[in-house]
Amino acid sequence: MKTIIFDLDDTIYSYKDCNYAAEKALYRKISQDCLITEDEAAQYLKFAKRGVKDLVGGTAAEHNRFLYMQYICELLKIYPFRYAYNWYRIYWDIFLNVCYPYEYVIPTFEYLAKKEIKIGILTDLTVYIQFKKIKKLQIEKYIDYIVTSEEVGCEKPHEKMFLKALEKAHCAPSEAFMLGDSLEKDILGAKACGIEGILYKNGVNVLDLLKKMGC
Hints:
This protein has ten helices and five strands; from the N terminus they run βαααααβαβααβαβα. By secondary structure, it is α/β, with parallel strands linked by helices. It folds into two domains: 3-13 and 101-212, Rossmann fold (3-Layer(aba) Sandwich), CATH 3.40.50.1000; 16-97. A five-stranded parallel beta sheet has the order 3-2-1-4-5. Strand 4 (176-180), helix 9 and strand 5 (196-199) form a beta-alpha-beta unit. The chain is elongated, with a radius of gyration of 19 Å.
């Protein structure tokens, strides 16, 4: 085994918890700025996500919160240059403030580093935001390479994502392993490229699993 490829969101940390806290703060701010209820703000965000997905679905831009904020302003017929950037900043400030790695992450990364097994991150979303998460999680010193859907131009489970990871790791599919929380995107996507994988669930002892596999 030459490399272990990790998904980032909901595999290294809890995206669901961070996103929940960030969206709650966002609803409050939109409610204050636009004199609508927080429930109405939540509905506007829902419409914005759907609208952006219809425009750029299947690419990293589908997840771009700045596009969501611009879309909300356009739905509300208010000036986006006054509100969009501030809402975007509030969302990510709160998100990153509550972003911490799962307990297994640091011990596992230290173990793999000692074994000289390369650690990769394979993730959808934009590279800037994913780099910010990695910095906040304080795991950058362990990461040997990263592949984002923004640089590849498509999202998991597209084979280009996994082939790019193998290219950066300089290894064959049989020398790589994938760990992620999505059966379709992470595990089946990897298997289609000849890479074995395990579906991650919060609480699983990843280090023990890897040791049992002979890593």
